[in-house]
Design goal:
36% strand; 7% helix; single chain; mainly beta; 718 residues
C-alpha cells in the first residue's frame, strides 16, 4: 500500500513537471474555453454542454487558473446571445491577465449578439403592474432594490427608446432674471454662486416634492445641475442646495443664463415624459398614443458601471492583455454626489460604463455602447498600450472616451500613454450633460486618435491637453489624425471641432475633416488653440462651415499651421484673442476661402519684444516684432477683391508691408463645389504653384465595419 502511494506521488510529481516543462518551453496547448449563457441552468461548469449563467462565474474561474497556464494557453470566454443583466460591474484584475500571443478574451459567441445590461425591467415584465393615475398618466411602484437604497435615475427607456424627465418649459429655455451674487462686470466669472432671481411663475415653491426637482443651467461652456433648497415667492429668488462653478450669466455678457427645470410632477404634461417620486418610490409616465403600458417594455438603469479592468497602479500590478470583443453595453446610471454640480470642464467628473485602471495592452474591439447615462469608456492612471477599435457609440448622456493619467508630479508608472482610439463611430453624445467631450485626452501622451467619426454632440469633438498656460505639461506626442468631426455644438459656447490646451510638444492634428460646428453665444470654431497651446503641428485638415472662425487662437506659442483648407466661416475665418511677446503661429501654405464674415478677427497686431536667441550674443537676446508669421497662403472671396477683403483691417498691400504673406496671393483656388462641401481642386489651381499639396479627404472617418452585428429589435434589447 505504501509503495502504491509512493508510486502515485512520484507519478503525480513527474506529470506536474512535464506539464510545467511544456508551459515553460512554449509547447502549444489549446486555449482554455468557458461558455456563458444567460438562460443556463445553475451549477454549470462553464463547458459548452453546461455553461455558466453569469460572466462573473467565468471571471472567477479564470482567476483560479495558474498564471503560467493563462499566459501560455490563453483563455476565451464565449458569451451567448441575449441579455446578461448586472447590478454591479464585472471586475477584471491582474489575476485575469493573459499574454501578448495568448490574451484572455471575452467574446460574443459567433453568430450571436450578447448584451451586457445594467438596466432593470419596470412593470409587467418584472411583476409590477402599471395602473392609471388619471386619464393620461400611468404610475407604477418601483421594486425594492437588493441593497435597500432608493431609486435615483436620470434616464428611462420605453420600448427601446429614450424618454425624458418631465420638464418646464416644454420647449426652449427660461432666462435668469437677475444675479444677486454678481455678473462678469462685478465679480470673476468663476465665482461660485447658488442664488438667482427668476421671472414670476417660472419656478414655484408649491411643486410636489421640491427636493426632487433639478434646475439645469446652461452657462459659458458648462451645464450646472442644481437641486433646489428654497424658493422665495416674494422676491422670486431660488437658492440651491450647493453652488455652481460660475456666475449665472449666459457667458461673459450680462445676459441671464438659460435654464430648464426637470423632474417636475406638475410638468408631466407631454407624451414621452416621466417623473420619479423618490419619496414614494413611484414612477409616473405619460405614454404615447401607441404605447400600451400593460405590455410596454420599460427599462430603468441600475448599474453605475459595467466593466472595470482594474490593476493596482500603486503596487505596479497591472491587468494585461484582456480583450472584449463583439459585446454590446447598454444602460447604466449616474447621479451627482452632494456638492457636485458638474462644474468640471468637459463633464470630466462623470464616470464611465467601462473603466480601465493600470491596464496594459487591453483591447475593446467591435463593441457597441448605447443608451448610457455616463461616459462610455474611461482610461485612467497607469494605462499603456490599450486599444479601442471599430466600436459604435450612440445615445450617450455624457461623452464617448476619456483618456488621462498621472500628471508631472505623479510617479512614472502612473502615466497613461501610447493608447489607440481608431475607426470608431460616435453619434449622439452629451444628451444629459452637454458639456461632455466626444474624445477627451487629459494629462496623457503618445496616444493616437485616428479615423473616428464624431457627430451629434453639443460640445467639443476631440479635446487634448488639460494644462492651462505655459507651465509644464506631460501632454505631448498625441496624434489626432483622419477623423471626421461634424454637426456639433449649439447649446454651449467656447468649443471647437478639435480643442487644444497647454504645452503639447509633438502633438499633431492631421488629415481631419471638420465641418458644421455651431455654438450658442460665441465659439463654434473648427480648430481651437486655447490657453498656452504650444508646439503643435496642424496640417492637411479641411475645416469648413463653422459659425465662428475655422481656425482660432486664444493664446498660443509657436504652433505650426500648414497645408490646410479653412473655408466658409459664417462670422469670421481666422481669429486670435491675445498678442504676446512671442510668435503664436507659423501660418504657411494654407488656403482660406470665404463668402461672408471677416477674414481676420480680433487681434492680429504685432509688438516689439525681447527674444532670447543665443548665449553668444552679448546679452543673449534679440529684438523681435512679429507675433505671427504668414507666408505662401492663398486667399479668396468670390464676393470681394484683394483690396476690400481686409487683412487685419487693411489692404493686402498693407498686410504685406508688415512682412505678412509676401509670397501669398488672392486668387480663386478652383474648388469643384465648395458650397456643397466639395473642395477638390483643378490641376491648374494657383494654390499648387504656391506649394499646396492636396490630400484625399475621403479617408477621414472609420475604415471597415463598426460595432457588432445589428441587434434585433426585440424585447428590451431594442
Amino acid at each position: 500500500m505504501l509503495a502504491q502511494l509512493d508510486a502515485r506521488f512520484v507519478f503525480g510529481r513527474i506529470a506536474s513537471m512535464v506539464i510545467l516543462s511544456c508551459l515553460l518551453i512554449g509547447v502549444h496547448c489549446a486555449a482554455a474555453e468557458f461558455h456563458v449563457r444567460a438562460d443556463a441552468a445553475s451549477g454549470g461548469d462553464g463547458s459548452a454542454e453546461a455553461p455558466f449563467r453569469t460572466i462573473q462565474q467565468a471571471c472567477d474561474s479564470i482567476a483560479a487558473m495558474p498564471t503560467l497556464q493563462r499566459q501560455r494557453q490563453g483563455v476565451t470566454v464565449w458569451i451567448g446571445g441575449g441579455i446578461h443583466r448586472i447590478d454591479s460591474p464585472i471586475r477584471l484584475g491582474a489575476e485575469h491577465s493573459g499574454a501578448l500571443d495568448h490574451p484572455v478574451r471575452f467574446a460574443a459567441m459567433p453568430g450571436e449578439q450578447p448584451v451586457i445590461s445594467g438596466g432593470v425591467p419596470i412593470g409587467s415584465q418584472a411583476g409590477q403592474s402599471w395602473r392609471r393615475h388619471d386619464d393620461k398618466r400611468w404610475v407604477v411602484d418601483l421594486p425594492k432594490r437588493a441593497d435597500g437604497s432608493p431609486w435615483r435615475f436620470r434616464q428611462l427607456y420605453v420600448n427601446g427608446q429614450r424618454r425624458y424627465r418631465a420638464r418646464t418649459p416644454d420647449e426652449g429655455f427660461y432666462r435668469v432674471a437677475a444675479c444677486p451674487e454678481g455678473t462678469p462686470k462685478s465679480v470673476h466669472y468663476h465665482t461660485d454662486c447658488k442664488t438667482f432671481q427668476f421671472h414670476p411663475g417660472d419656478l414655484r415653491s408649491d411643486w410636489k416634492n421640491l427636493q426632487d426637482v433639478e434646475v439645469i443651467v446652461y452657462h459659458f461652456w458648462t451645464d450646472s445641475h442644481l437641486p433646489i433648497a428654497t424658493i422665495d415667492d416674494q422676491t422670486n429668488t431660488v437658492t440651491f442646495a450647493h453652488r455652481a462653478g460660475k456666475v449665472f450669466t449666459n457667458d461673459f455678457s450680462e445676459e441671464g443664463a438659460r435654464y430648464v427645470v426637470e423632474n417636475v410632477f406638475e410638468a408631466l404634461d407631454q407624451p414621452g415624459e416621466w417623473y420619479l417620486d423618490s419619496t414614494q418610490q413611484r414612477l409616473y409616465y405619460y405614454p404615447h398614443a401607441d404605447e400600451d403600458m400593460t405590455k410596454a417594455n420599460v427599462v430603468a438603469p441600475l448599474a453605475s458601471q459595467m466593466v472595470v479592468i482594474d490593476g493596482d497602479v500603486q503596487s505596479q500590478r497591472f491587468a494585461e492583455h484582456i480583450r472584449l470583443e463583439g459585446l454590446t453595453f447598454r444602460y447604466c446610471c449616474f447621479d451627482f454626489p452632494p456638492g457636485n454640480s458638474n462644474d468640471q470642464q468637459g463633464s470630466a467628473s462623470i464616470p464611465a460604463a467601462v473603466e480601465f485602471n493600470a491596464a496594459h495592452d487591453c483591447v475593446l474591439d467591435h463593441c457597441r455602447f448605447h443608451d448610457l447615462g455616463t461616459f462610455a469608456i474611461d482610461i485612467k492612471d497607469g494605462c499603456v498600450g490599450n486599444q479601442v477599435t471599430h466600436c459604435d457609440f450612440s445615445d450617450l448622456s455624457a461623452g464617448g472616451i476619456r483618456i488621462g493619467g498621472g500628471d508631472e508630479k505623479a510617479p512614472p508608472w502612473y502615466r497613461t500613454e501610447n493608447n489607440v482610439v481608431s475607426d470608431n463611430r460616435l453619434v449622439g453624445y452629451g444628451i444629459d450633460f452637454p458639456s461632455a467631450v466626444g474624445i477627451l485626452l487629459t494629462d496623457t501622451s503618445g496616444n493616437r486618435v485616428a479615423h473616428n467619426e464624431i457627430s451629434g454632440g453639443e460640445y467639443t469633438g476631440v479635446s487634448v491637453g488639460w494644462t492651462w498656460g505655459y507651465g509644464r505639461s506631460i501632454s505631448r506626442d498625441n496624434q489626432i489624425e483622419d477623423n471626421h468631426i461634424h454637426d456639433i455644438g449649439g447649446m454651449l459656447s467656447d468649443l471647437g471641432g478639435i480643442y487644444t490646451l497647454g504645452v503639447s510638444p509633438g502633438t499633431v492634428l492631421r488629415g481631419n475633416h471638420i465641418h458644421d460646428i455651431d455654438a450658442n453665444g460665441y465659439g463654434g470654431w473648427g480648430i481651437y488653440h486655447d490657453e498656452g497651446s504650444t508646439h503643435i503641428l496642424v496640417e492637411n485638415n479641411l475645416v469648413h462651415d463653422t459659425k465662428f472662425s475655422a481656425f482660432n487662437i486664444h493664446f498660443a506659442k509657436e504652433v505650426t499651421v500648414r497645408n490646410n483648407i479653412f473655408a466658409l466661416g459664417e462670422l469670421e475665418q481666422l481669429s486670435r484673442s491675445r498678442v504676446e511677446p512671442h510668435v503664436s503661429v507659423y501660418f504657411e501654405n494654407n488656403i482660406v476661402y470665404w463668402t461672408e464674415g471677416k477674414l481676420f478677427s480680433k487681434n492680429w497686431s504685432d509688438q516689439e519684444y525681447s527674444f532670447y536667441l543665443h548665449p553668444k550674443n552679448s546679452s543673449g537676446t534679440a529684438q523681435r516684432t512679429e507675433t505671427s508669421v504668414f507666408d505662401w497662403n492663398l486667399y479668396f472671396n468670390p464676393n470681394a477683391t484683394a483690396n476690400d477683403a481686409l487683412w487685419d483691417g487693411g489692404s493686402l498691400a498693407q498686410w504685406q508691408q508688415r512682412g505678412k504673406d509676401r509670397n501669398g496671393a488672392f486668387a480663386d483656388p478652383g474648388f469643384a463645389d465648395p458650397k456643397n462641401g466639395d473642395f477638390t481642386m483643378s490641376p491648374t489651381s494657383p494654390a499648387l504653384k504656391l506649394g499646396f499639396r492636396p490630400w484625399d479627404v475621403s479617408t477621414a472617418g472609420p475604415r471597415g465595419d463598426v460595432g457588432p452585428p445589428v441587434i434585433d429589435a426585440t424585447d428590451d434589447q431594442r
